[in-house]
Amino acid sequence: MYIFPLRCISILQGNTATAPDRHLVSALNAPRHFPATRNKPPPHLMKSRRHAIIRNLIASGEIWSQAELAKLLAREGVETTQATLSRDLTEIGVLKGPSGYQLPGAAPAVVTPEGALARVLKRELISIDVGGTLVVLKTPIGHGNALAIELDRASVSGVLGTIAGDDTIFVAARSELAARRIAKHFRDLAELP
Predict the structure, then answer these.
(1) Domain pair 43-102 / 113-190, same fold
(2) C-alpha 103: how far from chain center
(3) Does 182 score more than 60 pLDDT?
(4) Are 58 and 103 in contact (CB under 8 A)?
(5) Mean pLDDT throughout 112-122?
(6) C-alpha torsion sign, points 172, 150, 166, 125
C-alpha cells in the first residue's frame, strides 16, 4: 500500500484565500518514513534462522546464561528479547547442565571436580589475597557460596577448609607456604595475572 503525501497550499474561507497554520503545513508536507518491510523475511523464517544460530552457539561453546546467549546472538546480528529467547530455548529443548546449556541428545559433559573448579573460578573470582595461612577470595555479591562448594568438592591439596560469605571466601591452608601455593594454583585456574 502506498501513501501519497498531502500538500497543503491554502485554505479557502469564503472568497478569501488565507495561509494555513505554518506548523500544520510543515507536518503535512513532511516526508513520510515507513520501515522497509520488503527485505525483511517472514517471521517463521526469522525464527528458524534464530533457532539455527542458537543451536550453533550452544554446540560451539559453554554458555551459562540467557544474557550471555543474547550477547552472542547480537554479535550474529540477531536482536531478541529475554522472553523470546526463553521460548526459543524451550522449543529447541535446550537443557542446563554442568557445562552450561546443552542441546537435546548431546552427551552430557563429564566434568572433573578440578575442571568444575576452574570453570567457576574463571567465571566468579575477582581477586585473591594471602594473609598468613589464609587465602582470601573475592567474588561478585551473592557468588561466594557457589565458589566455596566447588572448592570443597575439588579437595585441593593443602586446604584444611573453607568459610564462605556473600562475596568473600576464606580458605584455611596448612601453612603459609601452602597458602601461597594454593593462591597461585587458583590464579592459574582462573587465568588471573
Answers:
(1) no
(2) 18
(3) yes
(4) yes
(5) 82
(6) positive
**The pLDDT of residue 107:** 66
Please provide the DSSP assignment of the chain as one string.
---PPP----EEETTEEEPPPHHHHHHHHSPP-----SSSPPHHHHHHHHHHHHHHHHHHS----HHHHHHHHHHTT----HHHHHHHHHHHT-EEETTEEE-TTPPPP---HHHHHHHHHHHH--EEEEETTEEEEE-STT-HHHHHHHHHHHT-TTEEEEEE-SSEEEEEESSHHHHHHHHHHHHHHHT--
The domain limits of the chain are 1-32, 43-102, 113-190
Task: Identify the CATH class of 113-190.
Answer: alpha beta
Three cell numbers at 169? 571466601
Residue whose grid cell is 522472553: 83
pLDDT tens readout for residues 16-51: 444 444 444 444 444 444 454 455 666 666 888 999
Just give the CATH number of 43-102.
1.10.10.10
